[in-house]
Automatic annotation (TrEMBL):
Protein name: Outer membrane protein beta-barrel domain-containing protein
Keyword line: Signal
Signal peptide: 1-19
SUPFAM superfamilies xrefs: OMPA-like (SSF56925)
The organism's taxonomic lineage, starting at the top: Bacteria, Pseudomonadati, Bacteroidota, Cytophagia, Cytophagales
Amino acid sequence: MKFTATLSFSLLLVQLSFAQTEPGRALWSGTLQINTTQLAGDYPNGYTRRSPQLTFSINHGVFLQNNWMLGLAVSGSHYKQVNANTIPLNQQYTRGGLSAFVRKYWGTNNWRIYAGGGIGGSLDQYRQEVYDAATSIRSENRTNTYQVSPFTQIGGVYFLDGRWGMEVSTNSTIFPFTFSGLTAGLIYMTGRTRSERDIQAATPPTVGSQARAGRFTVGASVVFSGSKEDVNLRTFESQSLIAAPALGFFVANNFLVGLSVPITWSKNQGANFTSETSLGFAPYVRAYLSNTRLRPYVGATFTYSAYSFKQDPFPKEQINHTAGGTLNAGLAYLIGQNFIAEANLLNLNVSKQTQNNELKNGLWLQGLQVTTSPAFTVQYVF
C-alpha cells in the first residue's frame, strides 16, 4: 500500500509539470519603477531641481496549443527634469515600445527550454526647453526617433510550483543569433486546466525547516571587476568591488532580524590616482508568510552609509552621508534544509543625502519598484 501511494503522488507531480504549457494557461512578467530626485541648496544662488522618472514593462503570453505561446510585450519610460530659479534648462524624454512574439517550448517535469521570435518597435521623443535671460526668449527643441526590427529569443524556465517559475532568457536582433546578455527573472502563471484542479487538491504542501526559531543565516553578494589599458605608452588601470555580507537570526518561526554591511570601493590609476569608498550599515527585519517551500515575505531595512574620496596628493575627504529606509516584499524558496533563495519583487524607499560642506546642499531620493526581474540572493542557514 505504501508503494502505491508513493507512485500515485509522483505521477501527479509529473502531470502538474506538463500542465504548465498547455492551453488554458497564461504567462505574466513585468517591471514598474518610479523614482523622484529633489536637489536643493544655496549654490548657485539658491536652486531647486526635481527629476521624476517612470519606467515600466509588461509581458503577457497565452498558450494556444500544447507548448506553443503567443505573446505581447509593452514597455515605456518617462523622464523629466525641471529647474527652478536661475537654471534656465528643462528637459523631457519619453519612450514607448511594443512587440509581438511566438515561442515553442520543449521539456518535461519542471524544466522547459524555448525558442521564438517576433517583431518590435519603439518611439522616442526628446524635448529641451532653454530660457535666455539676456533676451527673455524661451526656445524649445524636439527630437523624434523610431525603430522597427525583428528579433529572435531563446531561454529556459524552471517551474517552482503551479504558479511561479524562474526564467533565464536572451534576445537578438541579428539572425541566426548573437548573444548580447542574459536576463533572469520570475514569471507568474494564470489559468488552470481541468486536471490541475484535481492535482492541487491531492498534493500536500512541502515544508522546510530553515525559518524555524533559533537558526542563523549568512549571505553575501560580491562583484569584483577590473580593467587595464595602454594608451600612448601610458597605462590606465581600474578596479572596483561591490559587496554586502549579511548575518541574520530567526527570533521566532518565520521572523528574521539581521544586519547587512554594504561596501563599495573603486580605484583608478592613470594620469593621477583616485579612490572612492562607501561603507554602510543596514539592519533589517523580515517576516515569511507561509510554511511551504515557496513563501512570500515582507520586510523593512534601515540604511546608513558614508562616502569618501581621495585623489593624490590630497588627503582623503568625506564627501557625504546618506540615511534612509526601505519597505520590501518578495518571494523566498527553501532549498533542501540549509539554503533560502530570495527574489525581491517590491521596494518602496526614501533617503536623504547630506553633503559635508558649507553650501547646505541636500538630496532627497524617493522610489517605488515593482518587478519580476529582481536581484536574486541566497542565504545559508545553520
